[in-house]
Amino acid sequence: MRIFLDDNGQPTFEDEFGQPMEPKAAVKLLRKQRELTTADLAFLAWVSPRTIEGWEQGRPISPSCARTLATIIEKDQQLSFVGGVGG
Fold this sequence. Notes:
Layout: E1 2-5, E2 11-14, E3 20-21, H1 23-33, H2 38-45, H3 49-56, H4 63-86
Helix pairs in contact: 1-3, 2-3
């Protein structure tokens, strides 16, 4: 999954094949793939669990929160890679 900001500064989500994803589906997928509870993802993203629930129901995600989610994905991929090499 990839998150980036479009020319208008709005978050855009893509799956691993570069196909667009709805933000609510992307957030839910991010959480499920990493086996995170709503509270876990909220903690990592510095938002409330209700905010995560709102995103999963289709509420807009601000650009700053999208950047935070992108960082979570990036860090997770780095940890997965390091764990795969070392373990």
